[in-house]
Structures are given as structure tokens and as C-alpha cells.
Design a protein that fits this description.
Two copies of one chain form a homodimer. Chain A is mostly helical. Chain A contains ten helices and no strands. At the A-B interface, helix 8, helix 9 and helix 10 of A face helix 1, helix 8, helix 9 and helix 10 of B. Chain B binds a DNA duplex through helix 3.
Chain lengths: 210, 210
DNA sequence: TCCGCAATTCAATGAATGTTGAATTCGAGG
DNA sequence: CCTCGAATTCAACATTCATTGAATTGCGGA
């Protein structure tokens, strides 16, 4: 939307267009680009997001993407594909507590994360499954590591099938809540969804799946 | 993959390139375009699919898309957005049989369709949720009509929430099986998935969801 | 048989996008 | 204080894509 006159804090107020050359210190354009990229990739997916849109959102020129990350591809790899959380670490944290409430803890944890800070990375991933080969692979690796360790630790059988079943429920919930935006799932509060979804996830983890 | 020399059945074998002008009768390019469009949209989503790729697959020139459908947009509307099946009709057919096996019939029916003839339309829809505004709306309308009528008929409460819960499980299963392709869900046979998923869907339809 | 019209291909156009190189400006070390 | 290098913007390029208009060819009715 707004893409010019974002220069109000510049030292020379008489020049409306931003000056060339090195900008005053203290502005980390690299970080700004990563954050803008996560937001724009989350909204539009990999090939829906343009380098110009990301740069505009970060308040810099589009050439900065190539300067700092080599290419749009490189920016996507740094901003989205390198997940900011470790699946094994997250899984270990969720093991504490009664095993029959595991599904509950999982649903609550994922919804809380996706609603909050790291959520755009997840949205960027599932929105880029089409359009970027590695997005699906990264998502799959994450769920595989996460659920394989978890299901193994509670001693259930048929680990690969249970893993994909759990993934299907979580990905589906993410798609409906954040991407396709079906009401009332989009605006439902977290605890309502925990009560509704957790027992189903629990069955995939420890129940009889035929 | 193959994109030229698909002209082996032409009347003049000495001309390698296809002649201009009207082609011999009996070739319904309009239908060929619709079928090719469903396949290519299913593989690549709306903006991943190029008009040239669709036309090549149909064996005609890209300009035919504009001639017959006005635009890429128009072709998408005819080939994907106008669903070839009626949700209410489908729902009515699934009502026959015991209510506690409803989830089973639903999972089996959807997997059978998606694996078979009309499956590319569904894949095209979910692959185009990013990139095409109306894709999500059409998908939502379908599930809403389908599940709202169904849940109403069996007398459960909280119809909108149950509808989105069911949609989340079915969309998630479709994403994992056809789009993201996590093993073993991609190659699992239908009855295995029915046994695994149907009880969860059944709970969303008639169970206690908190 | 002949003629108008529709179907088809071809070539070109304009817009959008990722990328690059030159020009410019600031920060820091000597 | 001066100079070198890094950061930044700007303009231009090459490519890809959907779309369009002209040219061409077969079908079907009179």
C-alpha cells in the first residue's frame, strides 16, 4: 500500500526521495529484510511474493535482497526454510506431564506459536508448498522428527502412519484457521480448539487406529 | 515433458509443424482445454500453471485459451471453480446407512473420488488457495453446504464449529496425501486410511467436542 | 460449387519480475 | 583529516507470461 514518503525520519527534510549511498548507522536492513520476507511470504507464498514488495515493506531498495542474500531464493532459505525452532527440543519440552494429555499440550502449543511470533514462518511454509520444492520437504522433516521422537517415547506402534495422521490434523487445522480462513475456526479461541481437536490428536498418538 | 511432434495423426505427414487455420472436424479443443487445465492447475496451482503449458498439453495453441474462455481466469472458472458435483446431492447419498458409520462413508467416498476421476479438481482447488481469491471461497462453500446439511440431518449441535473441524481433517488429509506427499499416507490404501481417520471424523460429527 | 464464418496458428506487444552494474554516500581506521 | 571500503539507491536488462490482432485454413449452408 504505502511505498513512498516513508522517509520522514531522514536528516534532510527538504529531499522527499530517499538519498543514495550508505544510510545512517543503527539500521539493520538485513534483519528488516528477514522480517519483511516472513510476513510477505506468509501472506502470498513463495512465488506470490515479489522481491519489490518485500523490500518496500522493509523500507529499502529491492537490490538489497541480492546484496545481502544473493537472490530471492537465498532470502527464502534464510527467512523461512531455516526454522527458528528445533523439533527435537520442542518435543522434549512437551513430554513432561501425563501421557493421556499429550494431544492437549501439542494442540495448545502449536496454536499458541502459530498465533504469535513464529507463526508467519509456518504460514509461509504451507503457503509455499506449491511453488517451492523445498518447502514441503522442510515441513515434512519437521513433523517427522517431532512426532517420530514423541511417538517412540510413549511406546506406540505404527510410528510412520501415526506421524502422518497427526500431521494431517495439524496441517489441516493450520490451513483452515490461517490460510483458507473458514469461520468459526479462524476466530475461535485457542482453548475451544484444544477441547475440540486434542482428543482426536490423542487417538492418533496412542489410540487404536485399525 | 513432450511438447512438440504431437502431430502424428495429422493428414499431411510431410509437414512437421502444424498448419494454420481450422483443423479437421471431430476435435473438441474446448473440452481438451478444460481437461488439460484441470491437470495442470492440479499439479502447479493457479499461478504456477502457465497458459502455454495448458495449451501444449491440450495440443493446441495458447491463443485458444483466450478464444474459448476469454482469459486464463475464465478457463480456471470453468474448469475448476464450477464444481462438477453438487454438495447437497453428494450429502444426500451419504445419509443412507447407520449414523454411527457416517464418518466411515464420508472418508471412503472422498478418498475414492480424489484418487479417481474428479480428483484433479480438488487438488487444483487447494493448490490454488494461494494465488486465487475465489478458490478458497469455493472450497469453503462446498464444505459448508455439504457438512451443514449433513450435521443438521443427524441432529448435532454447534454446526458451524463441527463443519470447520470436519473440513480441517479432510483438507489436512488431502494436503498430506496429494500435495505435500508425506509417506506412508500418500501410498496407503483407502481402507487403511478409512480405519484410521473415520473415527476422528465421526467424533467431529456426533461426539462431544467440549 | 462457392462463399462467409468460425477455428486455428503465428508473431508481436506490454506488463511484471528477478537480477545486475554504475553512481553515490556514509562510517571507520590510520 | 583523508581515504578506502561497504552500504544503498537508481536505472536498465533479460526473461517470462498473458493477451491480442493479423493471417490462414477448413467446415457447412446456399
Amino acid at each position: 500500500m504505502r511505498h513512498d514518503e516513508a522517509v520522514s525520519t531522514t536528516e534532510n527534510p527538504e529531499t522527499t526521495a530517499r538519498r543514495r549511498g550508505r544510510r545512517p548507522a543503527g539500521q539493520d536492513t538485513r534483519t528488516a529484510l528477514v522480517e519483511a520476507a516472513r510476513a510477505v511470504f506468509a501472506e502470498n507464498g513463495y512465488d506470490g511474493a515479489t522481491v519489490r514488495a518485500i523490500a518496500t515493506r522493509a523500507g529499502v531498495d529491492a537490490a538489497m535482497v541480492n546484496h545481502w542474500f544473493g537472490s530471492k531464493e537465498g532470502l527464502f532459505a534464510h527467512a523461512v526454510l531455516e526454522l527458528p525452532f528445533d523439533p527435537l527440543e520442542l518435543q522434549a519440552a512437551l513430554r513432561d506431564g501425563p501421557a493421556h494429555e499429550l494431544g492437549e499440550r501439542i494442540v495448545r502449543t502449536f496454536l499458541t506459536r502459530w498465533d504469535g511470533a513464529g507463526g508467519d514462518v509456518f504460514q509461509a511454509l504451507i503457503r509455499s508448498i506449491t511453488g517451492h520444492e523445498q518447502a514441503g520437504r522442510v515441513l515434512r522433516d519437521f513433523f517427522q522428527r517431532f512426532f517420530t521422537a514423541l511417538i517412540t517415547s510413549i511406546g506406540s506402534d505404527r510410528i510412520p502412519l501415526r506421524m502422518t495422521l497427526c500431521a494431517s490434523q495439524l496441517v489441516g487445522m493450520g490451513m483452515i484457521r490461517y490460510v483458507a480462513k473458514f469461520e468459526p475456526m479462524t476466530t475461535a479461541d485457542i482453548e475451544t480448539l484444544v477441547r475440540a481437536v486434542a482428543p482426536n490428536l490423542q487417538r492418533y498418538l496412542t489410540g487404536d487406529i485399525g
